[in-house]
Amino acid sequence: MKTAIGRFLSNLFGGKKFWWVEIKTNHPACTYYFGPFDTDTEAEVLKGGYIEDLEQEGAQNIRAVLLHCSTPDQLTISDEADSPFADFSTPVLGQS
Question: Which of 6, 11, 18, 21 has the most CB atoms within 10 Å of its CB?
Answer without folding.
Answer: 21
